[in-house]
Design a protein that fits this description.
By secondary structure, this protein is α+β, with helices and mostly antiparallel strands. 20% of the residues lie in helices and 32% in strands. It binds zinc ion (ZN).
């Protein structure tokens, strides 16, 4: 029996290496890989979609959750295209 693949896009927050904003990224898993796209500038990276990367995404979310206490602006990152710059 085949394991059901995740195909739903996953929105997650991270600092974009291309535009340097904190933005929402959309990861679109396809088999063992995922295309991760910055919803602000369109920068695209291909990720190996494994447990390691999923854990990394969760860790980043946890880190940003903590950062919200210092930078409440991070809470505003909700819809694709949202972006903020932190000092
Ligand atoms: Zn970007």
């Amino acid at each position: 029996m085949r394991v059901k693949r995740e195909t739903k896009p996953i929105l997650h927050r991270q600092k974009c290496a291309a535009c340097n904003y904190y933005t929402l990224y959309q990861a679109l898993p396809a088999g063992d890989q995922a295309t991760d796209t910055c919803t602000h500038c369109g920068h695209q990276v291909t990720l190996a979609w494994d447990d390691g990367i999923k854990a990394a995404i969760k860790n980043t979310e946890r880190m940003l959750k903590d950062l919200e206490e210092i930078y409440p602006e991070l809470k505003a990152l909700k819809a694709p295209g949202d972006h903020i710059r932190l000092e």
